[in-house]
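ping. complex inputs:
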Amino acid sequence: MLELTNIHTSYGDSLVLKGVSLRVEPGTVVALLGRNGMGKSTTVHSIIGFAPPHTGEIHFRGQQLRGLQPNQVAQAGLALVPQGRRVFPSLSVRENLTIGARNRNTGRNWTLQKMYELFPILERRANVKGTLLSGGEQQMLCVARALMTDPDMILMDEPSEGLAPLLVRELGRIISHLKTLGLAVLLVEQNMHLALSVADYAYILSKGLIVWEGTPAELHANEDVKSRHLGVTA
Amino acid sequence: MIGFEDIARMLLTGLSYGMVLFLIASGLSLVLGAMGILNLTHGSLYMLGAFVGITLANALGGFWLVALASGLAVGLFGLLIERLFLRRLYKQFNDQVLLTLGFVYILSNLALWVWGPFPLLGVVPPYLNFSIEMGRLNFPAYRLALLGFGLAVAAGLWWLQEKTRAGAIVRAGMDDQEMTLGLGINYRLVSSAVFFLGAFIAGFAGFIGAPLTSASWDMGFPTLILALIVVVIGGVGRVEGTLAGALLIGLIDSLGKTFFPDFALFTIYIFFIAVLLFRPAGLFGKFHVGGAAPPPSAVHVERRGPLRRFRHQWQERALHWGPLLGLGAALLLLPPFVEPYMRTWMTQLLIYGLFALSLNLLFGYTGLFSLGHAAFFGVAAYTSAILSVNLGLNNFWLLLAAGVLVATLTAAVFGLVALRVSGVYFLFVTLALAELLAAVAMRWVDLTGGSNGIFGVLYPSLGLPIRLNQVSFYYLVLAVVALAALLLYRIVRSPFGLALQGIRDDEGRMRHLGYNTWLFKYLAFLISGAFAGVAGVLFAPFSGTVVPGFLGAATSSVVMLMIIIGSTRVFLGPLLGAALILFLEYYISLYVPERWPLVLGAVFVLAVLFLPGGLGVYLNRWWGRLRYTRPASPDAPGRMRDLGLEIGD
Amino acid sequence: MHALSIDNVSKNYGGLQVLYHLSLTIGAGERVAIIGPNGAGKTTFLSIISGVQQTSSGRIHMFGQDVTRLPADHRTHLGLGCSFQSNRLFFGLSVRENVLLALQGVRPARFRLFGGHDGDGATQAEARRLLESVDLWPKANEPVGALAYGEQRKLEIVLGLASNPRLLVLDEPTAGLALAEVPPFIAAIKNLAAHTTVLFTSHDMDVVFGLAQRLVVLSFGQIIADGPPDAIRNDPRVREIYLGAEV
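pong. complex structure:
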């Protein structure tokens, strides 16, 4: 579904991604792990087009994404749940949801009503400005906002950031639910626990390179990789 | 005795004028808020709308259709500017400002060409061409209609912005433009639509406001400044704020005209300054421009090329100092042997060069984009002209001291007001303050001679037994400018100058390093004002005449252009820019003097599009290639960049 | 006298509360790590200490003086030095000039209108010492933009240290450094800030346990644990919230 081949991306003068390649198959959840500053968010930004890579290929359902504007990437069926949520503060919750609403005939037919069923809290707060929601509610809003663009795949950049453990578990359930609907997810996470509980496959990024890949079970077993690249001390 | 009727008339007059201001400012505010583009052409678009509309109405008759047509015409013109030029300058604030300034010159000169120098009166539809009479009060019906119409436009805009999906997209774009793209929204299309709408309202307003403001070729700047004042007071991007700000300004204007007719214009400015001093975020000030203060001119990092071959030290020195010595020798030796017009040209070059260098301390080194620097230049020129013509004082050194003192004091006052705000607002405020001073010079006829200015300024005496003639005056200018430039150079290279550059790169970080950055910016403002004053004192006897135009935004923006064309990052770059502009001006005025502003405007546009970084940088790079560069030994307190014209960063 | 004393400090952005009634005192010479999950309020906590942001309520004292409403430059003159999570360097200037700016910020020389950027001999020597301590001296005349990210990171820390602060605040000092670069970097910080109170955040547990003598655990804007590293490591609540149950 999504395939990155050897992408290089710079911010200003510093090369952040030094040849990242990864694959996401349809209907699977793939976790991208790694410490702060290793290039995880840059990978997401490279895909969506906020930080276009200068070399490498990005193919999404056979279409080359490199060189497209972010809005064209989004229209191709990729949705973004960005780091830090980036809810529009001047917009009400409802406007946040409807602003990007689209029907791409994926058969999922997302409507405002369906979204309210999935996230009941959003209906109760529909007329409130988006930033007046709590952190957890804002995260739900972001997932819902992304779904409203009727995507085939969602890029989630650190969705668990700042969420209480209970909400992180809720988030895990939502991601699993999206998977059952046939959506693919690229999940960028620091919270290894969440990532491995929902992912089918995982990559570890360090200093702009993929240094390890495998299944969650393999990663669980590999203490060396965990302590070296994820900062998990046994 | 002021009765009820007078108060009612005053209120109605103020409110209807406020509505026109609202119509002007709303487009500017919309474009600034939604796109982060400060469109300085906005006042000129209003002018264009007025001329186009009046011409159409006189030829074809009709009113509302004509208003729509002029809106459409101006809207399409705006769209053209956005598509062809502004689109390439996304997030490049300085370039946007210069480009739109260029169009101010182009449009005003075109208007002068097409519609002539005399103002055209607005057109009132016959069915509104009567007065309403109530007791002693009679009031033009058109103004009342304007009031209702303005409210309808405000309501429409508010509805569009707050209640429609398009409006939600625009608001979301003000919050976080990138994220709207991430949701698949084609924000570029939205931007074009917003720009079109802004220009449309301006063109439309130009015609229906014309019965109040009429149409004249030189109304671009004053209209823009009124709109900027409204935006500063009302906040950016929100219809309610703009409406409230505009009505308030309209009322204050009418209040001023009723009670202080001699100072009518100034009541607005005094109110504006008071708001800035006490509520710098604006009266309704929770709204802010999306991008806040954009960093001044993109960081330009020069890298050393690979070292090629070794030359002897003396060769290296000769190449290093060669251009500077050559320039110095030419300035020193040529004048007695050239034609008088050439001498005049060289004198002018030196004076404007110093003026530009002084502004570059503020812009290139401190990162403060000021469009009011001519105020200090002009006020010093006026001071020395008034002292010498009206009071007969002609000792150069006294005139210099007085001129610089007055310029510095003016900078001290302006700095207190302007440094209350930053970024876009700093530009607004310096522009408005300088125009205020120009307006004072225009009105205070007893002191300044009004629009005629002060003429017959003679060469000063040096207190020596020689009388200055054209040649010796040139050498006086050369000596003073060289000394001043040297002083400026020392300041730029001093720890203080380094601190200014730090503020330019990251003011917040400088505070964390222990710098009271406000104080440093204020001192930079004073110093650059003082040096502009030196240039101004030299200018008065050079030109012989000082007129209000030398104080205003037009002069400031030309000097800003000189800096940018020359390069802000090479110390003598502004001199180079001054040479280029003055050369062009001289050449053009030989053939089509009346089209100079048109050419100047085109130079603005071309400079923005084709000369990023300025000529100085190119020259330097080219010169650097010819030169041997010594390996950067850390033990030698070296410079990071390799600047052939020498000097500075 | 405490180096830093935080008294009942809260911070909210609009309706969103980030810090809840925090109180904390740090003695002179202590090296304290603030840890906690992403979004716990660590960066906000450091930024109200450094003066980037104002508190919504509560007081902050530095070396006995109330700095709650003092601007950042005053705090620097009181002895605070800080470096930021994302590098805030002066990209139009050379490496040396960056350090000189930091050195002169607390010296009267910053007001000097004449004389070179480099200041006096003592300032030059100090700049050299600082740059040598992080191996950046050979690149002193390079533009900052020509440095690799790790080198820029070191310069960022040097800018915080240059004023010879009594209290040093570091936000994620080793973020983006190569693994091999981290231990010498920590050693350099320990060496340069031997007698300085240090308050820092880090996600890297090697850095936390290598540098800190005391850990403060933040979660949802509240302090949930505070103590020596070993005690924190074994605190079940901390393990649950931060280190993750699988560890």
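The longest strand of chain B covers residues 131-134.
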